Amino acid sequence: MIKYLRHEEIDKHTWDACIAASENNMVCALSWFLDVVSPGWQAYVEEQGGAYATVMPLPGTLKMGFPYLSQPLHAQMLGIFTTVRSSPAVREQMLELTIKRFKFINGYRFNAGDTPCLEKLQNTYDLVPRYTRLLALSKPYPELYKGYTRDRTMNLKRAQRANLRMFESDDIEPLIEHFKKHIAHKVVGGVSEVAYKMLRELFAAAKKHGMAQLMYTTAGGEVNAGCLFIKYNNTISYTFNSADSEGRAANGRTLVLDEIIRQHAGSDYVLDFESPMIQQIEHFYASFGSQRVKYFALRQNALPLYVKVIRNVRMKLYRAFFATGVAEEV
């Protein structure tokens, strides 16, 4: 029987044991990760023999008195995580319960392990296909290197000739300050201090659990690129990065990604580039020999008509506000 649990009802030790035992386990579904990116998260849980056999995190909130479900910042995918003891129909049951509970669902992303089940339900629910890029690191480095495109190998050689200094660090602040200075102004709507605070807390929690790896490249003593990776079980997640024009020209991130691949070559790790749906960025990740992997995002808008009208007006004002450039001056 599937139960809806409020945040305070969730046994987090039992939760994390279920995530770890599930075939499609991922770091962003662990309780401490969810506590950072979605405080007060709820869940659907199927119990068997006193243990959680299947779970689905629900990063929900209330807006205008209606339950909303959305994808938290820094969490690429969530969805349904099940152990071998669970019945095959549980995914469809949890999806149906989600649709009934949340009047508005803004792109809640299911993990790739849910894809075969969701493929069959596209005519029933508003499921939007999305893609990430994965690179299995089981081969020796020379074989992985052969999978790079010609352009990537050329850019890697340029990076090596650029005499960049590459090093690991336990300090997230240079990465945040670098992103603020060089990237944030390009993000539509800007980036709030809440997002940076969340990133700091996430890095601290991942470091506490021994899962964080933060790398920088510098030229002349100045950081020009930074990359944060979080490792859990057999997955390395490319969680956050920044590069300025100098870092891009010198291919700092190419140098870092190649080093991560080199360090973990011949292992059971898979590098998840957490690729966004932006062609240029996906092309960059594909150049390392990664494979395209499909997953689904769920949408729904069952709000009353008057709420839809208010929301649409707000969105139009929001877009017009930022289109004027006024937001950049505030």
The rough form would be described as globular
Binned strand content = 25-35%
User: What's the oligomerization state?
Assistant: single chain
**Element order, helices and strands?**
EHHEEEEEHEHEHHEHHEEEHHEHEHH
Unreliable spans: 317-330
User: What is the alpha-carbon Rg in Å?
Assistant: 21 Å
Strand order of the largest sheet: 4-5-7-14-8-13-12-11-10-9
Question: What is the count of distinct domains?
Answer: 2
Would you give the CATH topology of the largest domain?
Aminopeptidase
Please give the CATH architecture of the largest domain. 3-Layer(aba) Sandwich
Could you give the topology of this structure?
Blueprint: E1 2-5, H1 12-21, H2 31-37, E2 42-48, E3 51-58, E4 60-63, E5 66-70, E6 81-82, H3 90-101, E7 104-109, H4 115-119, E8 126-136, H5 141-146, H6 150-161, E9 165-169, H7 173-182, H8 193-208, E10 212-219, E11 222-232, E12 235-243, H9 245-249, H10 252-264, E13 270-272, H11 279-286, E14 291-301, H12 305-323, H13 326-329
Parallel strand pairs: 5-7, 12-13
Antiparallel strand pairs: 1-2, 2-3, 3-6, 4-5, 7-14, 8-13, 8-14, 9-10, 10-11, 11-12
Helix pairs in contact: 2-8, 6-10
